[in-house]
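Changelog-linked ticket: glutamic acid example.
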Amino acid sequence: MAALSLLVGCASPRASDVGACGAPQLEEARDAWRPGAPGAPEIATGYTRKRLVTARRDLVVAAHPLAAQAGCEVLAQGGSAVDAAIAVQMVLNLVEPQSSGIGGGAFMLHYRARDERLFAWDGRETAPAAARANDLRWIDDDDHRPPVPSARASGRSVGTPGLLRMLEQAHAQGGRLPWRALFEPAIRLAEEGFPISPRLGQSIAAAAPALQGDARARALFLQADGSAKPAGTLLRNPALAATLRTLAEQGAQAFYRGAIAAAVVEASADTRGGTATPGRMTLTDLAAYRAPQREPICTPYRRVYLVCGMPPPSSGGLAVAQVLGMLESFELAALAPTARDAEGGKPSVLGVHLVAEAERLAFADRDRFVADTDFVPLPGGSPARMLEAAYLRQRAALIDPRHSMGRARPGDLGGPAQGRAGPGIEQGTTQISVVDRDGDVVSMTSSIEGAFGAYRMTRAGFLLNNQLTDFSARPVDEQGQPVANRLEPGKRPRSSMAPTLVFRRRADGARGDFLLATGSPGGAAIIPYVTKTLVGVLDWGLDAQQATALVDFGAFNTPITFVGGEHPNVDGREQGRHDALVQGLRALGHRVDTASQSSGIATIVRRTGADGTPLYEGGADPRREGLALGTPAAAGFR
Ligand code: GLU
C-alpha cells in the first residue's frame, strides 16, 4: 500500500513507525519557516507543493501546522471531529489572528455518523439593534461624511461575534471531550509563544499602517519603531491566554456577558480620541446573540452524489449548488485536465469555460436575490425555486460553448426585484476540515472578514471582525429599489462562505456514505474555489491533494475570468500570453486575469481501502501554510 507510506501519525501505539504527530510534514513546514528559508509561502503569491496525506481514521486539515497539530492531538485522545475543530479554531485565533477568531463568526456543517444526521450551524455576526441603513456610508443621517478612518476601520463594521455561541452548541451535539480540554493547546501556545509564520509576518507588514492606529494591535504585532515584527519572532499573547482560560472554565456565556463582553463593546465603541467613528454594538446585542441551526442545502449531482452546503445568510451553498446544477447539462468528465500531475494537471479550455460561464449565471442570481432570509425571502420562499432542475437547465442553455457571455442577467424568478450588489473581495478567513474515527465530519469556514478584521483589538487579546462590510453599503440601487443585502438591525451580512460535505446517494436517492469535505477562504472567490475542487474530485477523478492544488479558476458576474498565475502549471508571464489555457479562453472572449490567487482550500476525501475499510485522503492548499495530519488506526494499521 504505497499511500500508507505517506501516513503521518500522532500518538498511536505504532507512532515510532511513522513519527510523532505530524512528522514528517510538520517538520518540513517548520523548516520552511526559518526566516529566509527558500520556498516559504508568500502572502498571496506563494505556492509550496504539498503531498497527499492518507489516514485510516482521524484526519484534520487546517491552515497552520500548529493548529492542525492541536486538532490531531485531540483526535488521538479520542476527541470527535467537533472537538478537534474547536481546538484547531482556538489555536488559529492565536497563530493566524489575521484570518479568524472569537471576535468573528463562522459556518459549520457537522455530520454525525451514529445517527446519520447533518447539522448546519450559523455563527454569522449580526448587525447591532441600533444599526441604521446607511451606517457604512455616512457618520449619521444628518452628517453624510463617510465613517472615519474608513467604514472598515471604524466601529461601524463590527458585527456581534457568533463563533463561540455556535461552537458551544455544536459541542453539545457532537463533542466527546470536555469543552475545557479543547482550549488547552491554545492556552499553552499563547503563554509560551510561537514563531510568527511567514504568512502572518507578511500580513502584519501589509497591514502595519492600519495596525498602528490601534494601541493594543500595535503592541502585539509591531516593533517599538512601528515596523512589523518579522517572521520567526516569538509571539506571546497573555491577554488571549487569560480569556481562553475564562472561556474554558465558564463556557461561551462568559463571552456574551461580563468582562469579556464589556471588552468587545469597548473596542467597538472606541473613538480613538475622537479620530474614529464608533460602532453601535451594546451589551444587549451580545447577550441576545443566537447561533441558529439552519436547514442545509443538499442537491443531487450526476445522480450518484449529494452535495450539501450552507444556506443563507451565506450565498455559498446556494451558488455552488446552482453552478453544479447547470454543469449537469454538460459532459464535464470528458473535459478533464491534461498532463495530470500532483498539482492537478492542466485544466482544459472548454472545461474552464463551461464552469466559469455557469458561475457568471449563478453570481447574477446571487447578487440579485440572496441575503439573510430571516429578513428577505428568496424567490419562491425557499432555496427550492432557484435550484429547480428545469430552471437550471434553462439557465445552462444560455451557455454558448463557443463564446463567453461576459455578463449574465439574473433569472426571471418572479417576486419583487431586490436590486443588485456585487461580490467584493475580502481576505480574512480560514477553513477547517476534520473526520474522526467514528466517521463524524466537520467542514467549517471561519472569518473575521478582512485581514485583521476591523483592526480593533480588545483588551481581552483578540481582534474584532469587520464583517458588516459584507452588507451592501447602499440600501437602494440606482433605480431606487431596495437591495436585498442592505444593512438592517439584527440582520446577518450575506456571506460567500461555502463549507461543503458531499455524500454518496443510495439507490433510493437518500443520503448515503460521506465522501468529501471541503471549503476555503477567499471572499466571493470561495464559490469558484469550492466549485473547482468539487468538479476536480467528482468529475475529473482527482485525489484530495490534486483537487485542492488544481489551478484556481472561475468568474464572478463580470467579463473577467481568473486563472491563478501562481500555479506551476500556468505560465503567468506577460499576462499569460504564452499559456495555452489563458490564450484559449481569450479566443472564447474571456478577459483573463492571471493574478495570483490565495485560496486556502482544505479537503478530505473518503476512499475505501482494499479491505473495505475507509481510507481518508487529506489535501492542504499549496497557496497557504496549512497541513493535513492524520492518525493511523491502532488495529489494522499495516
Ligand atoms: N467575509 C467573507 C464572507 O463571509 C469572507 C472573507 C474571506 O473569505 O476572506 O463571505
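Closing comment: Example verified and attached. The longest strand covers residues 105-112. The CA atoms of residues 242 and 269 lie 23 Å apart.
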